[in-house]
Specification:
With 343 residues, this protein is an alpha/beta fold. The protein has a domain at 33-217: P-loop containing nucleotide triphosphate hydrolases (Rossmann fold, 3-Layer(aba) Sandwich), CATH 3.40.50.300. It has 15 helices and 13 strands. The protein has a 5-stranded parallel sheet. A hairpin with a 5-residue loop joins β4 (97-103) and β5. α1 crosses α2. The radius of gyration is 22 Å and the shape is globular.
Length: 343
């Protein structure tokens, strides 16, 4: 197992830092839950993206509170927030900004760069699949590098920087499915389920009366940057790292047929997850272990985040699409097929 980070010289110091981190994250989740009814797993996924330093894709039918969730998260942290409504006529310059002619007091005109809404700490890309691929690609550099390039000049985005995108899985007319390269930039693909009866009753009580719920900021940018650094410094046992690697390999059909793969993967998967999927899996597992009160991720943490980290990175073949095979079912079979003992 790797050694403890230099800024956590003792187990007691690490335990105290862990408890402080847990308190902060639970306060953050608690503030969000004052507005968002139920959806605890969804809230946990969004918080994981924030702390792990990765972007999130939220998928669910309209009216489930995806936009409200992201807005509430932004209110619960002292960070700049911007919302971009993606539409077919949205242009890349509407996201990253452009140069405009500006006249000074003497009447001299010069080109001045006007930053776009991407220059915020938390960016909500609402209905991201409604924009054309050209506009969607404007997010690629920002999500991957934390920079945007306009007029040949690269500009740094704020730190921390987080993109949370939403999309509707049902309505296909007038939408442009995200390309695999862009999907791979998202740390987690979070599915937003329909609320149960009790949750619906609570939603109605909260939203049809005159009561106003306010959210108090509980974290700032400096604390989030510290959290991200601390999460990445957590020690990981070599057996856990190898377990993640074996899960990733089993998302791919065997290239020559000599390696045994889960049946659903062998029959219905065309391409599996990229190495970025393994990185997402291990990063999200680190956050999960902290919220569970552990100083190092275990196999159960990896399994808990596997679906959200991998479901957007596995591509079914034609037969799998035609037969309606679920990617989540493939992941279930992979987790049954790969055991920690084999690592």
């Amino acid at each position: 197992m790797s050694t403890a980070p230099a800024d956590l010289p003792s187990h007691e110091d690490a335990r105290q830092a862990l408890e402080a981190l847990q308190r902060d994250l639970r306060r953050l989740e608690g503030e969000i839950q004052r507005v968002i009814v139920g959806q605890d797993e969804v809230i946990r996924g969004v918080v994981t993206c924030l702390v792990a330093g990765g972007h999130g894709l939220l998928e669910g039918v309209p009216g489930l509170g995806k936009t409200l969730l992201v807005r509430t998260l932004a209110e619960a942290v002292s960070l700049d927030f911007a919302r971009i409504q993606f539409t077919p006529d949205l242009m890349p310059a509407d996201i990253v900004g452009t140069h405009v002619l500006v006249a000074d007091a003497a009447g001299e005109r010069t080109l001045s760069y006007q930053p776009g809404p991407i220059f915020a700490n938390i960016v909500l890309a609402d209905e991201v699949n409604r924009a054309t691929p050209k506009t969607q690609s404007a997010l690629l550099e920002a999500m991957a590098e934390g920079t945007v390039t306009v007029g040949g000049k690269s500009r740094r985005l704020p730190d921390p920087f987080l993109v949370l995108a939403t999309q509707n899985p049902l309505e296909m007319e007038g939408t442009y499915p995200l390309p695999e390269a862009q999907l791979d930039r998202f740390l987690l693909h979070i599915q937003v389920p329909f609320p149960g009866e009790d949750e619906l009753v609570t939603i109605l009580e909260r939203t049809t009366g005159d009561a106003q719920t306010t959210v108090e900021p509980v974290l700032d940018g400096e604390r989030i940057r510290t959290m991200r650094s601390w999460i990445r410094s957590l020690p990981v046992a070599p057996s856990v790292t190898r377990y993640v690697a074996r899960i990733l390999r089993n998302t791919h059909p065997s290239p020559d047929g000599t390696e045994r793969r889960p049946d659903l993967v062998a029959r219905y998967v065309r391409f599996g997850a990229s190495p970025r999927g393994a990185q997402a899996l291990l990063l999200a597992a680190r956050v999960h272990c902290v919220l569970a009160g552990r100083l190092s991720p275990a196999a159960e943490d990896v399994r808990a985040v596997a679906h959200a980290a991998l479901r957007h990175r596995i591509i079914l073949n034609f037969e799998g699409e035609a037969e309606g095979v679920s990617v989540d079912a493939c992941i279930d079979e992979i987790l049954e097929h790969v055991s920690m003992d084999d690592s």
